[in-house]
Amino acid sequence: NSRPSIKRKGASIRTFYKYFYRDQLIETNPADLLEMPKLKEKDIIRLDTNEVADLLDEVENGEKLTRHQQAFHDKTELRDEAMMTLLLGTGIRVSECVGLNIYDVDFNNDGIHIHRKGGKEVTVYFGDEVEEALRPYMEWRKHQVTEPGHEEALFLSLRMQRMSVRSVQYMVKKYAKTVTPTKHITPHKLRSTYGTTLYKETGDIYLVADVLGHSDVNTTKKHYAALEDERRRSARNKVHLRTDES
User: Fold this and answer.
1) Which of the residues in the chain have pLDDT under 50?
2) Where are the chain's structural domains?
3) pTM score > 0.85 for this model?
4) Alpha carbon distance 195, 209 (integer Å)
5) Which residues participate in catalysis according to the annotation?
6) Percent of the chain residues past pLDDT 90, beyond the cut
């Protein structure tokens, strides 16, 4: 059995005996002596800076797509570029992206209104590059006739219906494997890429947690622990105890 499997089974055993011990059906809890295996932290897969640029270039020109994929590229280029730039430029979840309506985009304040987990509504702000990708798509979107029930959807499929999470996952995979075939890139990896870049630029883990919508900053710290250690290492030569008078 793998370590994760053993840990899950061990947790079940602990819960089982805890119930009997709590209700005084047994005098001691033998599960307290159970040693749980430590799981190795998985490295976060993210795109490097040059890979982000290559990915957006590929979305724009579609040169490395298959002939079959290129046949549809002209029809989806504006949409795909807007979605990919939005995901990379804001770090929103794929579910939040497909849930966007036309009126959720606010160019006056450079923001989008999204619904976080738990139903909380927040405004996420975007930069110039995201705006430049969104505006042409928004202009195109205004003239489209959708299927009934999808009139408010921002991002549309070729069937003129709201894009699904699965469709976006396929879209990201389609482009990503042309520029970085060794990495399994998903919409969540684009979110990790944004979080990593934001943390490197600001060094503010609380800001990263807030922008990504993490209710607990410890969740953010766990994901970016390696970067935290890297920043601590960089501080070792920042403080000088003696000035060089020579």
Assistant:
1) none
2) 3-33, 49-199
3) no
4) 9
5) 93, 117, 188, 191, 214, 224
6) 57
